[in-house]
Amino acid sequence: MKQLHFGVDYYPEHWERGRWEEDAILMQEMGIQMVRMAEFSWHKLQPSEDVFDFGWLDEAIGLLGKYGIYTILGTPTAAPPAWMVNKHPQILPIDRMGRVRGFGGRHHDCQSNPIYREYIRKLVTKMAQHYGDNPYVIGWQPDNELGNSHQDLCTCECCRQRFQGWLQRKYKTVLALNQSWGTAFWSQEYNDFSEVFAPRVTVTGENPSAMLDWRRFCSDLIVDFTREQAEIIRKYAGKQFITHNYMGFADKVDYYKLGELLDFVSHDQYPGGFYLPEAPHEKNHVLAATLDVVRSYKDQPFWVMEQQSGITGWEVMGRAPAPGQLSAWAMQSIAHGADAVVFFRWRTCAMGTEQYWHGILPHSGNPGRRYQELQEFIQEVNPLMDSLQNTMPRAEAGIVFSFEQEYAFQIQPHHKDLSYTGQAQKYYRALYEQNIPVDFVPEQGDFGKYKLLLAPLQYLMSPELEDKFMDYVRQGGHLLLTMRTGVKDRNNLCMTERELPGRLSEAAGVEVLDYDCLRDASVKVLFAGQEHEAFIWSDLMRLLPQTEALAYYNSEFYAGEPCVTVHPYGEGRCYYVGTEPGESLMDALMKEICGKAGIEPLLAPAADVECMARENGRERYLFVINHSGEARHYQAPEKCRLLRGGQLGSLKAYEAQILAVGK
Ligand code: GLA
Ligand code: ZN
Hints:
The chain is 32% helix and 21% strand. By secondary structure, the chain is of the alpha/beta class.
């Protein structure tokens, strides 16, 4: 099949049929090659129990097909219709407060409910049988943004029983469950698996071990929910691909595990989301990190299934993207590994919750500034997209990222401002601003690919992971560990055999004998003759022979004690950072550590200019993106060709250039 690179999310069911052809023509003129449709249209496809109507969708697919536009079908299971919910109210989810959540939004469903699952099997089977051979249908997206809106769901009786079954399979005996959850505390022992609850809000704190298993169970439930649909689609529509629209760092479902069901991962990218910080400095690195983590979920190129195409907004709105900014954001997605970009949405909807989440076309449907900008962008970039096939960003630095650690810190954040994901992003920022590409790496990933591995907050530990980290360093890797490493076992119970960071102290060369949670205070830190600030936490440690202190605390009762250390181990080095470095300390440390690891920036850093590369064995494509509304300059590499852009070395406002650099 021909490679497709640009598309839109299209909702023909929101508009009169008389308009569809004009839409198709406008899309074709713009260079749109595909649409995603139907992911919320359950009622239109099955208006009542025994009536299925695919006619309208057949017509839309056929009409678009006539204009050379292919279709990705969403299964509409994020929007169970009112007739079904009225007939089977137990489909509605129950939150942790024990409240039934009502009909009228989306995702008002309990994913373990067998009646609901039966409806899904029936509809998805019919859809897959009906569209499996349609030449215009190229792929599927089961449901929509799985995990979205489910953060607090579902604790109904069905989910409770399913959780009990999950625990029984995991622990076999109730004795093992009691030990693994430490239920001797506060008399939480169970005599039988059937006594276990789906965790409702308690009057006091919760059992961290029980809550960690609950998070794992919820993630597995979503994977199972998706697997059921994916199996049906593979059976009847095996020639078409299956993907899903992820949400970057969203954590309800373990995206690595979900990815095993998919041909490739997709993601929804809204850089101007009204819920994000305004200041570019506070979010540019997060946007880049989001794309990098998405690439890591299958360690391969991905698609953007929803790329912002106008002002975002539900009840309140974000800023208007300035001329050029939508293109710069789309190019940023491509730079970090997107092989296709689908814009959300085609036309701004006149009704419903998302009336102000603007599409390429305004409410009026008349093409305007956004249409023209993206038309030009697609026509210019589409020919280049074919050369980018089979290229990937290549990083020499990796950040270890795990959903289980994220769950454990959500359950016990320690400090109001400590977040596992946030911490990873803080390390990421320092590399991003140096133009050093970064991969996120799962625990089961190949550590050996990286010169430098940053592993912040490795709180839950296992002997296998300890071995893996130690082998990595022994074989010459540069590893950075931090505070709160090796604290717990995988049941979320504190380990007691050794001082922190447990067995890893052999590699790290430190033993943490005490610590301080800083609350609202900061601590001063001396590094290379300069004073900096650090936050959240201070580890107080004893250095083992050969360990060198790189930085010292410079305030509090532990002023003068080491704060950042390095220890040679085997062929490599292990750094230990006992606090959360503020930005100036982080930047200084990362410069030093990257330098020692022999990692070179892609380009000399320039303010507001993002640089990223995609490469294969022969070529390297350098992306240089100006995120500012003013002209910027950068120092171009010596041997390179400008593939897209005005002038080598200078960037107009929001200009995004592509350079081919000889290898
Ligand atoms: C998400 C969803 C879309 C839409 C947009 C805008 O990304 O997947 O269905 O709701 O947000 O709100
Ligand atoms: Zn439920």
